[in-house]
Amino acid sequence: MTPEELARAALTRVLEPGDEHGGRWLREYGAVGLMGLLTAPEAEPGVPGGVGQERLAGYRKRAALADPRRDLELAAESGGRFVCPGSAEWPTQLDDLGDARPVGLWLRGRPSLRTWALRSVAVVGARACTPYGAHMAQTLAAGLAELGWVVVSGAAYGIDGAAHRGALASGGATAAVLACGADVAYPRGHAGLLGRIAGQGLVLGELPPGSHPTPSRFVLRNRVIAALTRGTVVVEAAHRSGSLVTARRARELGRITMGVPGPATSGLSAGVHELLRGEAALVTDAAEVVELVGSIGELAPERRGPVVARDLLDRETARVLEALPAGRPADVEQVALASGTGTDEVIGRLYELHSLGFVERQGDGWQLTRQTPGGGTQTGAPRRGGR
Hints:
This protein has helices at residues 3-11, 20-39, 53-65, 68-77, 113-117, 131-146, 159-169, 191-200, 215-228, 242-252, 270-277, 286-293, 315-323, 332-339, 343-355; strands spanning 80-83, 105-108, 120-125, 150-153, 174-181, 202-207, 231-235, 256-260, 281-282, 359-362, 365-368. By secondary structure, the chain is of the alpha/beta class. The strands form 2 sheets. The protein has a 9-stranded mixed sheet, with helices on both faces. The protein has a two-stranded antiparallel ribbon with strand order 10-11.
């Protein structure tokens, strides 16, 4: 490990996630230089600058206690590693966060984060979700995984957990971004799930081994999810929801924001509906998500109702069929007048319709058959769906 990487590992003990003062210092002094300033026995007052003396004293105290080699050993014991800007595995899209980008990331799992992040989608939402929301998140994640996309979420209860389970169940790829150390099982009820994710995918976080979450760290964790992925899908979120923070941060970073609609009466979908009224695209399945975040040509299938036999008729034949009255026969002249077509043309079209089972001959007249081709009962002149 290079001195720069070792210094960055130490700084994850010193700087809180998203600390823009620390990010500016890193840009100005480099990691080795910054650690040198913070651990110097006779540091120049106010250097590095931009914060008060009391806060700077706190940074210095943390820097004096940091032991990056020990942290790296602890990470290795749980199958972990450390990556940072300049590493081969660093996902450069995180650089879009500017001075708020992570100092580095602690990972558990075998896959390359850089490779996985290139084709990843965030699926986030409410912790206290409904059965509908859990079903949609799990189905959506399974579909994305089957299409070769990595599902990224925060391993929380509710929508996050459902999304991870959907991807795992389909044998696909999923990554959990934590607001604590990558070796810490939080929430505790998801210890088994996090173990499965680490075994099949990736668990990652900005904080060093053994670190525990705080409310502010959850909020700041969301910026990593937003920046790391190609787009963010929100499945159920109330008006005040961390998931909306993730989606809006994704939009600010130029990523695609999407929402899955819910019942208009559901408070848990109110935040999603607010997004859909403004900056987010409506999606209902994985194919629609991929159409938005994927490459040119990755299109969702066309949506339409079932094709019935009359949809296959050409325009002139369908006009003759529509001119036949319901419940009684009509002669050729009456059909020609109603359809605005010549009698010879009508006769030819009627025989074509007869061969297809749409009409039958009644003496000198023609009438609709009681059973339409395909099995339905014809109670009036058929409507031509899809035309």
